[in-house]
User: Fold this.
Amino acid sequence: MPEIPQSVSRRQFLGASSAALVSGTLLAAENPSVVKPASTVRRPRVAAINSIYRLRSHAYHIAGRFIHGYTRNGFHHQPPFDLVRMWNHQQPENDLGPSVCKTHQIELTKTIPEALGANNGLDVDAVLLIIEHGDYPTNDRGQILYPRYEFFEQIVDVFKQAGRSVPVFVDKHLSYDHRLAAKMVDTARQMKFGLMAGSSLPVTWRRPEIEPPVGTRFEEAVVCFGFDRGTVEIYLFHALEVLQCMLERRHGGETGVKSVQFLQGEAVWKAGDQGRWSERLLDAALSRCASRNTGPLRENVLQPQAVLVEYQDGTRGAVLNLIEQTSEFAIGARVADRTEPVSSCFYLPAPPGARFFDPLTYNIEKFFASGRSPYPVERTLLTSTMTDLAMQSLHEGGKIISNPALGVKYSAPADSGFFRGPYVDAG
Assistant:
């Protein structure tokens, strides 16, 4: 081991060494011309903390890609990491955890600290926290009480005992409760470890492939989607991610949200007639959807749902759940000094492969390699908060909700990290 300079603490040295090891391994895997680490240097180690590991669960798709690899640019890509331990909170009849762990020599642990190597001190280089799916209660707002925060706290306890920390990825929103989500972000800042969160939508393929430059003068955007599978918040969060990953690129950066409002039924159409959301932008979004239904929108859609978002700087956003009109996520946006709207469909290849987890997993790899999230965790804090307060608005009969917690400010990355090119295997 190289000598540690006196001006560098042991914790800083260990963190830098771990990041350098992961970065070098990922770089070598992506570029064959780079000299690979000597065989005596171990590959970075990852622990997966899951709610459940069954077919089509998020853990199956994300942790599974660290095991089996996936397609990138038409060719097989094997992540340069070793998934060494797994902990699953629930074990249903179709549980795949034991068989997968046995086949791939992954240690299946009984506790979260054991998964992180607590008996040996923290001995992994990164952590996946994938708490989506499983049997959990819902509250009076219809939110699933996924224990992401509680399990995150157990991970943090191991960090504190070890005197060091490693990057943590949190699947989907940080928490159903925006106050707990903010605590998670604050903890990562205070302890100075990388935190990444979010869904596949911001990084999946776009048709057409548009990447508005940072500083684009967006004035308004409308997202359409159509899902009726489970509780409202599950797909509402995805729709808000689509909205946010575009509008965060507007001139002046993200200034925060002033208010959110959840509308249903005739109130959605009335808001459109009043100009609170743009039918022209909705048509632009729907025009990108291969699943778009024939016939008049208001005749087809029996129970529309919408969340209206007003930003601090006056920019407006809306997401509309139109189950009978489309099954895809798409956006239409108005840009100052531009005659026609810009629009794109956020393409999600279907299960069982669900290849939209390919770009998400690759961005997680980049995060684990550098310790820095490819996009600000503040985005997910804001979309988590919008989702929570939109559900509050629904519960309170469509009340406009304002809250200082919505005032999240940040700058968008120059490259959003979405996948270009093929989504099927070459040859």
Q: What stands out?
A: Confidence is low (pLDDT under 50) at residues 1-20, 32-39. The first strand starts at residue 45 and ends at 50. The chain has two domains: 10-202+355-374, 205-349+385-406. The radius of gyration is 22 Å.
